[in-house]
Here is the input.
Amino acid sequence: MNAPLSAAAAAALAASEASLEALEHEAIAILWETFGAFERPALLCSFGKDSLVLLHLARKAAQPGRLPLPVLHVDTGHNFPEVIAFRDDLVHTFGLDLRVALVEESIQRGTVRLAHADESRNRHQSVTLLEAVARHRFDALLGGARRDEEKARAKERVFSHRDRFGQWQPRLQRPEFWDLWNTRHGTGEHFRVFPLSNWTELDIWRYIEREGIALPPIYYAHRRAVVERNGRLVPITPFTPPAAGERVLERSVRFRTVGDATCTCPVESTASTAGEIVAETLTATVSERGATRMDDQASETAMERRKREGYF
Amino acid sequence: MQAVNTPSLPDAEGPSAPLTFITCGSVDDGKSTLIGRLLYDSRALMADQLAGLASSAFAGTATDGFDLSRATDGLEAEREQGITIDVAWRYFATPRRKFVIADTPGHAQYTRNMVTGASHAQAAVLLVDVTKLDLDAPEVILLEQTRRHAALVRLLGLPHVLVAINKMDAVNFDRAVFERVRDAFAVLAGVLGLPDWLALPVSALTGDGVTCQSEHMTWFDGPTLLQALESLAGGEISAAPVSDVRAEAPAWLPVQWSLRDSDIDGARWYCGRLTEGTLRVGEPIRALPTGSGAPTATVVALRVAGHPSAQAQAGDAVAVRLDQPLDIARGDWLTTAAAAQLGQRLDATLAWLDAAALVPGRPVLLRHGTRWVMACVERVTARLDLAQAAWSVDHQPIAANDIAAVHIEAAEPLPLGTSVRHARGRFLLIDPHTHATLAAGVVGQPFGDTLASAERVRREWAG
Ligand SMILES: Nc1nc2c(ncn2[C@@H]2O[C@H](COP(=O)(O)OP(=O)(O)OP(=O)(O)O)[C@@H](O)[C@H]2O)c(=O)[nH]1
Ligand SMILES: [Mg+2]
Here is the structure.
């Protein structure tokens, strides 16, 4: 997998290199602002690559002291077991103050009602998330979303205001001038804060490589049972069995994003290190979410609608 | 007056520092289409994103089967109405440079979002739609929104402006049209004091002059838009926020947060992003506005992005440990400057962006650095009349999207900078009850000579 890079790819790599330092300083300053301007901030973490880069930066920002905020995991119950094992290890190693918000509990409370038993729980996470915000009285949630992921996210502020109902109002976003962030808010309102706003997928992998950040193993090439569906490879899990007549294949794959197991697809790959993934990213012809997310494909506005409801 | 000003051109080889630029200009001038074209022609759109453009339910004017403006108009309402409402951020790289693009809305109602994008940019691509201008008039008059955006770009201190004279395909790529519009812009640029600008003929729709030389405009011997963007100097300022990074300047650090050292008992670190100058271990430092006397402490350790370091430079996220405990908190500035002026009264220029008009005398919250203080706009000294491109003293209220020269009194003294080039020269005004952001403010009066003379008129009028 170590094919020489084309001149254009090598240049893109050099350009990413040149901007990595500045992106790191920017992200840390956003973290400090969150630590300093809010009373009860938390760090949202899916234990996917962007969340883990964010957690790494937050720990750097807190040097030489302790991470000053809890980590919140919204758990749909439909996980890749490798990710949960990784989470539990990391909580132990870093001594994280982990709070888990279970979609299952929202279902039991009756605040989440599934249309049918095996409906994807991805969209319902917003309810569970907002319940956790209310219960813990969080006034800021740090998240690893990036503007280059998706066109609604490309419109997002760094400090993004949420009203009392947790809603994002894309037509009425507060302006954001320089780094003089307006973090003022009324009771019951909160902010979503995105320190990785200006990072691209390539920047993330370059940083993971440079900093040696540990990730769940499913980010690297491994053999997995999948079916081909609508041009994507759908992983076979207890929550996503093959449909009648579908042929189960075993392929060497890796995940470009890791979310709810019912809507995240891997891509074919033999890349087994961050450096090899950097090389693949440079020549990718399909975007990160395009290749991997079933939830965005439902309609052109799927992400915007979820975000308005309070999604990440 | 010189019609075309040459921007500080290239250092020819190797990748340059990343550049953040905005596209701005009046409604429908083709900003989003231009960005789509730039991304499409530099192969920065992925297969699934292209498929999205082609299948868009609202696909309007098509190029190669795609509506290029849909590459950035990402909100449902934007696609329904065919306009841009809020800034879209896009990232792409050519072999020469990595770019961050902020595609901003042209609609006057969404000027606040244009200012949002511009406050993070080092360069502006200002579009002018040739089909909207009366080319038969003795003097070409640019649209009000074009003038407003040019003035805002100047107010925010963006060092470079590329004037993309667009829709040349609709006027047969006529050289005379380009030159008339360019000359009209030259007058405006002179009045506003835009330091560094270059006009380029393009067609966002057909791609002429965007990433490749136009065979329809062989009369133009300047660079393509992409070449111009690749060669703009960007080194002396940092992208977000635009700020002076000269190394020899005294250090200024707005304290964002402080933390307790988990190893050294009682030791505290003060954290923030260095906005100016260089900070070194061993240097004497003081805190403002509280400790305005002599230096009171010495830097004993620095951490840059978490790592121990002997010095930090402008733009760095830096944590500072001092040799003695001082009463320092979020909102203070740490500085090595020998003499710093603290001011409580300031002459400033505002981009007023609230829907309601400015009410002089009403208390507002002012954010300067990391400090929030009560303040009040005591009086408006002049309003920028965009039609005349001159200060006006007509006593009209300052309405949404006006630019105004004002006098402000703050409740506490602040270490104010002298211009928008420094973080200390910028501030926000916020409604203390609704928390809405009312205005972006800049210390001083940044416009050129013509406006300065109107300023004299104002002074005479003010007595
Ligand atoms: N003939 C011609 N039409 C163009 C050109 N560039 C853009 N247009 C058309 O002008 C219209 C407006 O284009 P947009 O790109 O949406 O304009 P905009 O400046 O982004 O508009 P706002 O963001 O709403 O201010 C569309 O119908 C485009 O197809 C051009 O070079 N030539
Ligand atoms: Mg537009």
Q: What stands out?
A: Confidence is low (pLDDT under 50) at residues 1-13, 57-62, 235-242 of chain B. Chain B touches chain A through 77 residues (CB under 8 Å). Residues 175-192 of chain B form the longest helix (18 residues).
